[in-house]
Amino acid sequence: MHKFNLKTFQLKGVNFLAEQERLLDRIIHGHIEETSAHYHFAAVSTFYAAQRNANLIETLNAGVTICDSKPIFKLMTATKRNPFYMRGTDFMRYALLNMPSSTRHYFYGATPAIQDKLKVHIAESYPRVITAGFLSPLMSSNPLDFQADLKAIKNSKPDVVWIALGSPKQDFVAENVAKILNVRAIAVGAAFEFFANPKSEAPKFIRNTGLEWVFRLSREPGRLFLRYLFGNSYFMKVYVFEILIFFRQRFSNKE
Description:
8 strands; alpha/beta; Rossmann fold; 255 residues; two-stranded antiparallel sheet; single chain; globular; six-stranded parallel sheet
């Protein structure tokens, strides 16, 4: 395996991956420090959760954290940082098309109904992909249930485990799966749902504006209202603070 140094930038303690040469190709082909790497696509909700949980910051920084948020991307661009931005769903599409054909993929997360549709979508849209298995976990806090899932995943001998459990749960699970099973574990949020039900994904023009969260909120207000209320309110404060600090430093350097 070829090693390369990852460039990152920090926002309130979270190290986000920076744009760099041939980055996607290096990730896709596993040219990262170790095969047991774990990847996290972090939106504002993940960033907000990390501010309230030091263990989550530690988990994100132990892995590779990719900006999955137009607002975070715009803030970093405005303050002259160079973030790598990609949605988890788009990365999953790209990876399934471009990873080596011998790669064995395991899909862990979402409901049984979504998993059934996901199987059909993968088979029809990505016929070259080798699927090692699909598993919808029990909604349980019993650690023994997770151990049983780990055993099932291990027995399938995957190279990559895609995880869709919602953040921050999926981030902790991804770290454990990567370390225990020595595989690449990738936390991709709502990607399984979007693959299974394409109409549930915001149109591209909405995603490009950074208002995908509004589209999702309109579809699932009961589940997402509080998440966006607190997360987005907090990020607005961070945005203003970071912009003020940036321009203050800029003007100080000119004096």
